[in-house]
Amino acid sequence: MDAFPIPAESFILGFIGAGKMAESIAKGVAKSGVLPPDRICTAVHSNLKRRDAFESIGVKVLSDNNAVVEYSDVVVFSVKPQVVKDVAMQIRPLLSRKKLLVSVAAGVKLKDLQVCSVGVVGCRFIRVMPNTPSAVGEAATVMSLGGTATEEDGELIGKLFGSVGKIWRADEKLFDAITGLSGSGPAYIFLAIEALADGGVAAGLPRELALGLASQTVLGAASMVTKSGKHPGQLKDDVASPGGTTIAGIHELEKSGFRGILMNAVVAAAKRSRELS
Amino acid sequence: MDAFPIPAESFILGFIGAGKMAESIAKGVAKSGVLPPDRICTAVHSNLKRRDAFESIGVKVLSDNNAVVEYSDVVVFSVKPQVVKDVAMQIRPLLSRKKLLVSVAAGVKLKDLQEWTGHSRFIRVMPNTPSAVGEAATVMSLGGTATEEDGELIGKLFGSVGKIWRADEKLFDAITGLSGPAYIFLAIEALADGGVAAGLPRELALGLASQTVLGAASMVTKSGKHPGQLKDDVASPGGTTIAGIHELEKSGFRGILMNAVVAAAKRSRELS
To answer: Which of A223, A270, B224, B257 could form a disulfide with A195 if both were Cys (CB 3.0 to 4.6 A apart)?
Structure first.
């Protein structure tokens, strides 16, 4: 039973930590119309560029983190993981059951965040793991509800992060595997795009054309998977005509274990995530 | 000097061949506002589903290909490669210098198109499958007496279903080898399998895999940064990303993708 639902039509969203992630989310939220920018706030100490970045979106820039916490209903910790604990302890006196806390700090667990709630009954937390493409509005984000966060809290955060991409819910114990896939995954694709472009150059294309085609082809292929709802194996079957160019290319990939190599990358990154936690 | 420019504000676009490619382009063009659907036409023989598909976009469905050619200023050949020659010979008497012809038929060269139609104002266009979702990687090559303005017009039309570049026709085999989406379908399945191996349920793994690939490609197309620089930006010291990258590099991941592009380009040359 939610005694203090976040008021959907009037809630204020505050960011502690005015970095790139906060900027991406604030931009996405404002641009998609999910929240008008004047219901978003943050604090910037001295860096004028960061102040400008937020003010140019229409976000209120307050004097310090305490002001952000007092003013906001939903408070996002978007500081570097190393300083989360200090920030959490500092704002603890200002917390109440009425506020929803969200952390996007990589590797910081819900139980670590719970240090906030010592002495504050019913603290509501959601841990959110977005990935780098939040910056271009195509994030793959996963959230995990902690403490006494409610279903409605989850839906609200789902809406906010849905404005910078797609979002799923999962148990926190899956977060290492998720790191290996959506956290580190963009890098594997940067390598793939470079390699496809190199292949194009090897086949005779000028570099600029090869790189443009490579990145657009990858974008188009992923769009087909996300929009068609078809299995990627089915999509592959649909385009690989008998004795054609596509199946010749696929044959090269299969004979060299392309798919197994990508699996290895995800598994290794997930394992490293566990080691680091 | 262009004696007969296509009238930009009033030209009619016609499709010979009312298949999926024509539908994707017609939808994209209408949806993006580049052309109102009532300035687009095609012909459907008997297949009611195809008729409905076009009429539901607002496209005029005429009685036959001859009507399409007579009515249109820009005529797109979107029939299967095997029937292009017959269609070309059939409409030949109806052509004039005022019309711009466009072919999207895979593997059919400009010199053949020009010979069969007796018409030299041609643009050959090679879109790829993601035209269907508005994210095509398309390349065009201007032939014969097609003008720069013709090229810009076609660039606008195909720009409504994705991105378009110009290139010499001699590069088309290499482009075929590169712009196939199938390698990425395999990659997405493999990333999802990796996620499942690491403990994720299938549906979550597949959703994350496809969205991650989409996001990464968006970063390359939108940031204008080199993919190697983007990789450097995200691979922090001793972190999870560089551990994953190490697996890829030690197994020659990039070389394997190069092999695929080169092999497909070679096969394209063999088939031409």
So the answer is: B257
